[in-house]
Specification:
With 256 residues, the protein is an alpha/beta fold. The protein has helices at 24-30, 41-53, 66-69, 74-86, 107-126, 139-148, 163-171, 186-194, 222-233, 237-252; strands spanning 2-6, 12-13, 16-17, 33-38, 58-62, 93-100, 131-136, 154-157, 175-179, 200-203. 44% of the residues lie in helices and 18% in strands. The strands form two sheets. An eight-stranded parallel β-sheet has the order 1-4-5-6-7-8-9-10. Strands 2-3 form a two-stranded antiparallel sheet. Strand 6, helix 5 and strand 7 form a beta-alpha-beta unit. The structure holds zinc ion. Zinc ion binds at residues 5, 7, 37, 96, 205.
Amino acid sequence: MIDAHCHISIPKFNNESNPLLNLIPDFKKELEFVIDSAASPIDAKISLDLTEKHKGFIFSTLGLHPVDALELNDKKIENYIEFIKENKDKIIGIGEVGLDYHYHKQDAEIKRSKEIFLQFIELAKEFNLPLVLHLRKAEEDGFKMVVDNDVKKVMFHFFSGKKDLAMEIVNEGYYISIPVIMLKSKTMKKVVKAIPLENLLTETDSPWASPFDEPFNKPTNIKYEIEKISELKNLDKEIVEKQITENAKKLFGMNF
Ligand SMILES: [Zn+2]
């Protein structure tokens, strides 16, 4: 099994050092690989170090969370994009990037975040890398932007949109990543049931979003999601696990 989206690279969680770092040996026992998605320039450096130290187990995508993005001026964003370009051979995707209408409600904020998002869309296209999308309460707008810009490889991270939009996403050949917190979400369970297994990915968004009463979420919680998906789709766990791992390898061009 795999975790297609987590944050082992964040420097701090709840003001303490990231608790996931010490648990990497445990993750290796249960998971085939994990994808760490850097959400800021600080995370990005840590993420690259992690992929170097845990080659073949931790893979990295570099991006800029839309909320962090609005803190940065043009020059800082330009420098960060330059950093990503310099390290393009060490990463498997661009993200997480996108739009966040939970935090951004004003027109000026939305306009600015769309401009920044577009720069990352162009970066992904330039290097033919898949895009990892964060679209909070902005699924429709984000979907439109990737379709209009003719982006071919896309993962909708933490998808919490409705079934109908999920089907449109699938029809474009994109991937929908459902977080382990689906255990507590009726809408997410409906989406899992409706979409083909070939378009589905599993993720935790760890250390955030645990479905359990615990201080932080861990990539090893993926096993509970696999169980639930098998139940919802009436398929063997092994089949679900194998297909989802294949999906991630295919989207991110991992040849092993
Ligand atoms: Zn995330």
